[in-house]
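=== RUN LOG ===
request id: a7f3
mode: sequence -> structure
chains: 1
length: 371
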Amino acid sequence: MKNFSSKGIRFSGDSIKSCVGFIDLVDSTKNIAAMEGLANIRKYYSTFINSVSNLISSNSSDGKVIKNIGDCILFYFPKTSNTNDANSFQNAIGCCFKILDERYKINNELAKQHLPPFNYKISMDYGVLDLALVGDYSQIDLFGSTVNLCSKLNSSSLSVPNEIIIGDNLYRILKTFSNTTNVINNYHFTSKGEYKITETNRYSTYNIRRKDNFVVSITKNNKKDFLTKKQLISLKEDENRFFFHKKNNAKRVIIVDDEQDDLFTFRMFLRAYDYNITSFTDSLMALNYIRDLQDFNDLLIVLDIRMKDLNGFQLHQQIKAIDPTIKIMFVTALDILDELISIVPGLSQDQIIRKPMNEKIFTNTVKKLLQ
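=== RESULT ===
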C-alpha cells in the first residue's frame, strides 16, 4: 500500500468521470482489541490490505488502489470513464464479487492461525473524481463529492456487511446497457432506500446481487439444508468448513444462528474437539432436522435469539415440546440475562453466553453441558 511522503498534496485541477469504490473491514477495531501480540495485528491488517489490493489491481479487474484509510480501502476503475464500455463496468462489478468470494478462502486460512474472519462493506458509485498529486507528486489521490458520497454510503445504515451497495448514478449507467450484456443479465438490483444528503436532498441506493446466488437445497446423510450456490461450491471443496462437520464421537452439537460468520466462529472454537457438529442458518430447517433425530442423548443445541422465522425463544419451546430432556444453551448479543432466566423455565445462568464470545468460556460451557 502506498505511503505518502511529507511533501504534501498538490491539487491538479484535473478531474475524470469514473467508477469509484470503498471497502471497509467491519469490526476490525473490536477484533484487534482481542488479539494478543503485535505480530497478529500486523498479520490481520496486511492480509486484508494485500489480498483486496491484489484482486482490485488484477488484469481482469483493471482497477487501481488509491490508498487505505485506517481499515478502509479507496479504489477506482479508470476504464469506466467510457460509459459505453460495458466490459469495463462488468469487470468493476465482477471485481467486488470476487473480493466477496475470496473471503471464504481467506477466512479459512485465518481460522488456522486463530484469527477472526473478515467481513466487508463495499460501496460503489459513479461521478466526477477530482485528482490531486501527493507525496513526491508521482502518486494520485481522489477527492470530491462523488468520493465523499461513496464513503458515506459505506458507513451508513443502508450498507450491510458482505453485500455491495451502489449509488443511483452508477445504477442508471448499468441500466442503460442492453439486456444482452452480462452487466444486466447476471445481476439483480434491489432498492436499498434513500440516503439523506440534506433535509431536502435524498439519494437513491441499490443492492446488487448475482442472479445465480440463490438458495439451493442439499441432502446430506438423508437430511436437508440450504446453501447458496457459492457456499455449495465451497462445501464441495472443503466439507468441514460449512454445515456438516462429522466425526466419530457420539457427542453432538447442533448450532442455529442466521449469521453465517457466527457459525464459522462457533466451528472454529470447537475445531479441536471430537464432536459431531451440524449447523443451520434457517431455524425452521433446524427444527425439522431435530424432529427427525432418533435419539437425543449426548446432544447439545446452541441457539441464537434474534433470528428470522422462529427466534431463539420460539425454537426453544418447540424443541422442548419434542423432548424436554434436550440440552439447550443460548448465545446472544442482548444484555438480557436476568430476563432470560425468568422467562425460560429451567434455564440457568451457565446456559447463556454473551456475544462477542470468549473462546474458552464457550468451549468450557459446551464441554460441561455435554458431560
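=== NOTES ===
Residues 1-6, 214-227, 231-246 have pLDDT under 50 and may be disordered.
The CA atoms of residues 120 and 162 lie 5 Å apart.
=== END ===
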